[in-house]
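Suppose you are handed only these lines of text.
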Amino acid sequence: MTDYMKLGDTYLLHTYNRFPIVLERGEGIRLYDDKGREYLDSAAGIAVYALGYGNREFNDALKNQIDKVMHTSNLYYNEPACLAAKDVCEVSKMDRVFFTNSGTEAIEGAIKTARKYAFLKDGRTDHNIIAMEHSFHGRSMGALSVTGNAHYREAFEPGIGNVRFASFNDLESVESLMDDMTCAVIMETVQGEGGIYPSRDEFIKGVRKLCDERDILLILDEIQCGMGRTGYMFAWEKYGVKPDIVTIAKALGNGVPVGAFAMTERVAGNSLVPGDHGTTYGGNPFACAAVSEVLRQFREKDIVSHVRKLTPVLEKTLDEIKDRYGIIKERRGAGFMQALELEGSCAPVIEKARENGLLIISAGANTLRIVPPLVMEEDDIAELGRRLDKALKEA
Ligand SMILES: *Cc1c(COP(=O)(O)O)cnc(C)c1O
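From them, the structure of the protein bound to pyridoxal-5'-phosphate can be written out as follows.
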């Protein structure tokens, strides 16, 4: 055990069983530990580091902002927040955005917006929200209450109340839970932590239609699947639907903690007003400088096209691996958000991968999750394939 592991195990609250390495620095799509060992990274800090490590222009943009001012509060305008707000609205085709510090806070804001929208319509406060089984929306109390994994919620009940769980990709189950007190449907366009399950076309379109017919707000959580990950800037684009409220985080700051919820003008104009919501840090100049630089690089490097172009390469690599190992039941996913579901626990594979210089994470006990930096090239995918193949063989 190195000193840092000992320190961490002594002083950090034990809410994670950490893998036994100490990561020190990164370069491109590779991370290095304190012993100088190199790892190819197929996790990207949980779908965060889309633009890769040691990104010179990104780092310079941050340093530049640090030298000006990092924080001002939302009591004043600041230049990076105004610019980043325009950037996020343009890229998401939403009209107004609120910046948060994390994904879970974006969910809190989306829930409050939906409740306020319904409250302004009928003056009542007992509206319900329909969420999905096996969903994941975060760890704060509101987000936890709409998270469809009972194990995460159990010890912390009661949650926010009036939440109903439908089964994902089952339109009838959503419709059967709707009534005239339903204010929102919240779902991930592609379920992430729940095991990488994309929405079916007829499902998401059907949900959109039901919401339209009844003036129910559709909240799409694109915290993991958004920002180019599926080969679309936002995963909903593939289906030709649009949410009323979107939540974004993870890749939005490329490592700087920042999230956002954005909405259409119709929702913005009929929900939150001054005094209804706030944050001390959210949208501060430092975080927003990161957001604008991330989106600038997305444009400059055409990250979305890059992902779309290399998706068949990644899928083929994973399919070939699947064909070699009987314990792999299925490959599924979208773009650079892929899963290999195993017959049993994937823990031994994850361990062997690490020994072979590959960082890989799971989504549930039996599913390997591949969410690499979006700047991965063809050679990197081949290397990922070789190291994963070796890990599976040894496991
Ligand atoms: C990670 C994640 C969240 C929570 O984001 P945090 O930044 O960890 O609070 C919410 N929804 C989805 C889909 C996520 O993947």
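What can we learn from it? The mean pLDDT is 97. The chain has two domains: 2-54+302-394, 58-301.
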